[in-house]
Design goal:
heterodimer; A: about 500 residues; five-stranded antiparallel β-sheet; 15 helices; elongated; B: about 400 residues; about 30% helix
């Protein structure tokens, strides 16, 4: 950016950054004889103007302390000793850090003669209020969510975890955007190697801008070509905090209302925050249902294709006859019907997202009528396939995590194609490939399928079912936390 | 590993179109689901086999595709003949518009003439092909051919598969027949010390009450068992004899026993539970066998007006029903020993209890069995009755 040899004064700064209309320079003359020139620099919109006028300009021009001074050096001393009504200020001698202070939304006072600048944190830009989470709603649980402002998010977390050991380390990501990113962990609890590893990976991120979560996720995860999410994202502070105290590392990015948690395992995408606020028997039943439906949404279309075009003997006779009758007159083979309808469903979903809410309702009616009824009546698809694809689609919505659901959607297609080539044999090969793929994913030494694949632990208390809380005395062993026990 | 992964996907995709890697794909609407199949010996003197296949017609719009098309039926009947079962079955494809598929064959009906000839010759095809299920039920058609039965039922507008299913579901009400699957048949014919048996169905004509229709109506019913010597059918056993056989097999679920109360009026008892044990006993080199039957009954019907729920009367009734059951069992036992057919099989029990002794006598089992001393012991309890205890008119409940 700036030349190292450039002296810190208002002229030089002006030449460096005074190209944009929103950067304001204001020369003020203060002191007994109003002959000491001070330049105030700030960016409009990023600062709170009342703070600036009430707590900086007013005392500078009207306070008797400043009005009686003749020399610049004394003013500098006064500011440093706190005569301005401001809790903290930073003193700078080099032009480089002064520029970055301005662009972070601070106001800077420049004293030309002594080549000194003070920055005041008067940030005050428009920000969204903390609202209810839009995607992860619960009945019994907190109703706040993360917002775009990093400091607000950190304060939300501090309000929940009040230990002195909660650490928020700041990094700057993005050459152009200079986005602040904080990693959050608990000292003396989270595994140090894990924190070091995350720190190293974040420092090595070399991108233009960090405006989306994928920038971070794609740099941090180990299996770069997997469709499966390897970082857990959440917009719920309570979910974030429960992961932090479990011994994971969290990441907050300024400008994004979601938090990232690493390392993520397969199981976490199956857990909903509500599981832990309801009766454990009910939660276990719901979780079993979730696993079953995940299985169904993954395999059902493939299974249908396999049994109707390869293993007709597997279908109960009466059902086989019903399917046969329903398929009478349909010109396409089963797998074309199934794949076609699956694709049609994806099209409906995708176009539904892009449309405004008012239109999308009408659109979904058109879609449902066209696909569900007209296509059946026109003998383009058989009703049995419509039922199968509908069941598949509905089942896919029980998954608490959208990223994971998307990965399953992709694999559903792969498995259907495998089944259409070699029946259940092909489906098993596809299933094995999926399992193999999941086994290869490993983040920061923690396998994706843990604890199912770990040999050294038997921590199944919170897997297919959720046991009562007093069974979960230890933190996940795989995380290798410094403090192993949750409850003593 | 990445390469292997890649290669698997590649090979699956690129061989998908090859005819050789078709892996037997067939669309479900191009398949003819055979539900029941009948096998008969041709009745024109040749050695040919006649195969009659029935598939259910859900839409019930098309007529019989056999040639002689009749009114709307809910069954499609296909008939063909050939030198062997397989040839005959293959010949079905000649005029079927769909691929004939044996994966859903639920019933195999074998005509009497075929059963008397050599049943294994006819069934081998179904033992062998992978498409057929091992739990296919096999039935012998008593006094007739399977083709006639299938045809008659179709004329009556009854789908034979549904009818057989409900008949076999109700088999335990009388306990005079049973359901035998093809895998059991394979095992029975494999056991050289045993005489196999297969349940039978027969067609009976009944008077039709509806004057607008034909005078008589044909009905299928389960009719005991067909007993086999080697692989040829030997004899039928029906009714009480068949139930006696089921007592020894331990397959009696329910049934009716009619006894007389002390005043000579009939009382029906319903069997609600029964257990049978075949106990071979070896003492001083002599083998004898005891068949122990233990069963419970409930009073279902009293013809007289006397109160029978007294200890002495109940004891009297229990003794009667034990004797009746003993008689049923003795009857089938003497039949078996007379014809030297061990179809229970007692040989199995002997082998399991005295394996060493069995090694010594197994070759001469056909000489041992007819002379074997078999005794029957029956033990029974009358448990209770239902909504009313004393019969109406017995005077109970009349207030003075």
């Amino acid at each position: 950016m700036a030349d190292q040899s450039m002296e810190l004064n208002s002229e030089n700064l002006r030449s460096l950054i005074d190209h944009s209309s929103d950067i304001t320079f204001k020369d003020i003359y203060i002191g007994l004889e109003k002959n000491i020139k001070v330049t105030l620099v700030f960016i409009e919109g990023l600062i709170q103007k009342e703070y600036l006028s009430n707590f900086i300009l007013k005392p500078l021009l009207e306070s008797p302390n400043f009005c009686s001074v003749e020399k610049e050096a004394i003013i500098l001393d006064l500011i440093e000793s706190g005569s301005l009504y401001f809790p903290s200020q930073k003193k700078f001698k080099d032009i480089d850090s002064v520029t970055s202070e301005i662009f972070n939304g601070n106001a800077v006072l420049i004293f030309d003669k002594s080549h000194t600048a003070f920055s005041f944190s008067v940030q005050g830009f428009e920000s969204r209020n903390v609202t209810e989470p839009s995607g992860e709603n619960v009945i019994k649980g907190s109703k706040d969510s993360f917002v775009e402002t990093l400091s607000t998010n950190i304060s939300t977390i501090r309000r929940r975890i009040r230990t002195v050991d909660l650490i928020a380390e700041e990094f700057i990501v993005g050459k152009q955007t200079r986005t602040p990113l904080n990693i959050i962990y608990i000292r003396n609890l989270t595994n140090k190697d894990l924190v070091d590893e995350v720190r190293k990976k974040i420092q090595s991120i070399d991108v233009d801008g960090a405006l989306t979560t994928s920038i971070i996720e794609e740099h941090i995860r180990s299996n770069k070509y997997s469709p499966f999410p390897q970082l857990l994202y959440t917009e719920r502070p309570d979910k974030f905090c429960s992961n932090i105290i479990e011994g994971r590392v969290g990441m907050l990015i300024d400008g994004l209302p979601v938090a990232l948690i690493s390392p993520a395992t397969f199981l976490q995408f199956m857990q909903a925050p509500e599981d832990y606020s309801q009766n454990f028997i009910y939660s276990s039943a719901i979780r079993l249902l979730r696993f079953t439906l995940t299985f169904i949404t993954l395999y059902l279309p493939g299974f249908y294709v396999a049994v109707t075009s390869f293993h007709q003997e597997m279908i109960p006779t009466q059902l086989a006859l019903s399917i046969q009758v329903s398929k009478e007159g349909v010109p396409f083979p089963s797998f074309m019907e199934t794949l076609g309808l699956l694709i049609a469903f994806e099209i409906l979903v995708e176009s539904g997202i892009r449309l405004p809410k008012t239109i999308s309702q009408a659109f979904s009616i058109v879609g449902a009528v066209v696909v569900g009824q007209a296509a059946v009546e026109a003998k383009l698809v058989s009703p049995a396939v419509v039922v199968i694809v509908a069941a598949t689609a509905i089942s896919s919505y029980v998954m608490p995590n959208q990223d994971f659901s998307n990965a399953i959607r992709l694999w559903r297609f792969i498995l259907t194609i495998f089944s259409s080539i070699a029946g259940l044999f092909g489906m098993s090969i596809g299933g094995l490939l999926l399992l193999y793929h999941l086994c290869t994913i490993d983040n920061f030494g923690i396998s994706y399928l843990s604890p199912f694949v770990s040999s050294n632990t038997m921590q199944y208390q919170d897997t297919l079912i959720r046991m009562p809380m007093f069974f979960m005395k230890k933190r996940p062993v795989d995380l290798k936390t410094t403090n192993k026990k949750r409850q003593s | 590993m990445k390469k292997v992964y890649f290669l698997i996907i590649l090979s699956v995709f690129f061989t998908g179109g090859c005819r050789a890697f078709d892996f037997g794909r067939a669309e479900i609407n191009k398949i003819l689901f055979i539900n029941a199949i009948g096998i008969d010996k041709a009745n024109d003197g040749s050695d040919d086999i006649v195969v009659t296949a029935v598939s259910k017609n859900i839409e019930a719009t098309t007529g019989e595709r056999d040639g002689s098309s009749e009114s709307k039926t809910n069954a499609n009947i296909f008939t063909s003949r050939g030198m062997t079962t397989f040839e005959a079955a293959r010949n079905l494809s000649a005029y079927s518009d769909k691929k004939v598929f044996y994966g859903h064959v639920e019933y195999i009906l074998i005509g009497e003439s075929a059963a008397k000839d050599n049943i294994l010759e006819y069934l081998d095809f179904f033992f062998r092909i992978f498409a057929a299920r091992l739990n296919t039920k096999v039935l012998i058609v008593k006094d007739g051919s399977s083709h006639d039965i299938i045809k008659n039922m179709a004329d009556e507008d009854i789908f034979i598969g549904d009818l057989l299913k409900s008949l076999l579901d109700e088999k335990k009400e009388l306990s005079i027949s049973d359901e035998i699957q093809i895998i059991q048949i394979m095992n029975m014919f494999d056991n050289i010390y045993m005489s196999p048996y297969i349940p039978c169905i027969e067609m009976k004509s009944y008077e039709n009450d509806n004057p607008n229709e034909k005078k008589s109506k044909d009905r299928l019913q389960l009719a005991g068992f067909a007993l086999f010597k080697e692989e040829k059918m030997f004899e039928y056993i029906t009714d009480k004899m068949a139930r006696g056989f089921n007592w020894i097999r331990g397959k009696v679920d329910s049934g009716v026993i009619v006894v007389k109360d002390p005043s000579g009026e009939s009382i029906s008892l319903k069997i609600i539970d029964a257990r049978t044990k075949i106990i071979p006993k070896l003492s001083k080199g002599n083998l004898d066998v005891t068949i122990e039957v233990y069963f419970f009954t409930n009073v279902s019907d009293i013809k007289g007006t006397k109160d029978i729920f007294k200890k002495e009367t109940l004891d009297y009734l229990e003794e009667q029903q034990e004797n009746i059951i003993k008689k049923e069992i003795m009857e089938i036992l003497s039949f078996a020993q007379k014809n030297n057919m061990d179809f229970f099989p007692i040989s199995d029990e002997v082998y399991h209890k005295y394996p060493v002794f069995w090694e010594g006598i197994k070759d001469s089992w056909s000489e041992v069995f007819p002379k074997l001393k078999i005794s029957v012991e029956a033990e029974s309890v009358i448990n209770r009755t239902y909504d009313i205890k004393e019969p109406i008119k017995s005077g109970y409940g009349v207030k003075e």
